[in-house]
């Protein structure tokens, strides 16, 4: 076995904490909200597992997750005697990441940072790291480690500004799922596409790291095989922004998925309702659910949300499209955002009415959040409507971080809390599940009629 000359510890700053105390207390009684939060919190960092696969052979790689920072968790990392520590963090935990990185650097350990937030604000991150990765890390990571070995580490490695790190189809390696303690997870992540061509103004992922691209089907097959080596009956959540943009490629993907015994979940857009063959393949592949960004229950709020007002042009089809998708036995999790400039107090009652009329099997409610690097952030910053210069710990999707157009901050928070309480009430959640179960029953009956 090749001697490992160096050691890197990859640290995922997992978990997000809601600051709104009333919503936090209310959340204890909201089963749908709590269940989805638990799922998100239990996902490993696919970005770190991916760069781990691109590490030179003379590097030993360890993967750690820090939900709560304790002295014991810090000692656990220090006891590994790493040469380098690499952090990946969501915006909501970036301040904690900076503080911890500063502490490790004071101990003489080299620190590297990457991820969505750091890619959007590399200059902010640089004082807290010896090196920053901006954009896609796979092609950057091997050179970064080689530079470290030769004491020539650069302050920034960017795939967004340096064509040397341009994405290549032949650059793929299988993420290091073997680094995980599988017993800790209720699902694993797999990425089949990156980026999204819709480029919604509020989306922190659609273009911050990468433009839209698809993985080769053969590579996805290799990654699935690696997952099955560590977990025989996995639940897989795709780390995609919008999986089924290319319908022909998507059908190849679904045929591949159908050959594996697994259940899975992904995010997509409403256009899948327009393709019966795709829906048939989706159902046959054991897809448990698709999350679709419906965004709003009123058409005017969709004006200017995405490129060429695509979602606005789909709005009138929403109810029929949801019905059609779910008629194939595929659960739809409809995602709604509250706090657009066109929203009023009536928007909240309209949203509740729409959810009931749509018979969505599940619902995700969030507050409009201006993540750094997005068009929404730039707009609100220019309008001096951000509540603070840096409000990163409030980027939870459930905390208000800007001055709304038609509410006070307190009014938006209280209206959101009331809607959450109604939509996620136990009786209401149970009714949605019963309705979808009846849809499945009707599908089975009609199939055998």
TrEMBL record:
Source taxonomy = Bacteria, Pseudomonadati, Bacteroidota, Cytophagia, Cytophagales
Decide whether keyword Methyltransferase is in the record.
yes
What is the protein named? Answer: Radical SAM protein
Residues of the Radical SAM core domain: 182-405
Cofactor names: [4Fe-4S] cluster
InterPro entries to which the protein is assigned, alphabetical:
BchE-like (IPR051198), Cobalamin-bd (IPR006158), DUF4070 (IPR025274), Elp3/MiaA/NifB-like_rSAM (IPR006638), Methyltransferase_Class_B (IPR034466), rSAM (IPR007197), rSAM_horseshoe (IPR023404), rSAM_sf (IPR058240)
Q: B12-binding domain: which residues?
A: 31-155
One of the record's GO cellular component terms: cytosol
The Gene Ontology terms for molecular function here are:
4 iron, 4 sulfur cluster binding; catalytic activity; cobalamin binding; metal ion binding
Q: Which keywords annotate this record?
A: Iron, Iron-sulfur, Metal-binding, Methyltransferase, S-adenosyl-L-methionine, Transferase
The UniProt entry, under Gene3D superfamilies, shows:
Cobalamin-binding domain (3.40.50.280), tm_1862 like domain (3.80.30.20)
Q: Which Pfam families does the protein's record reference?
A: B12-binding, DUF4070, Radical_SAM
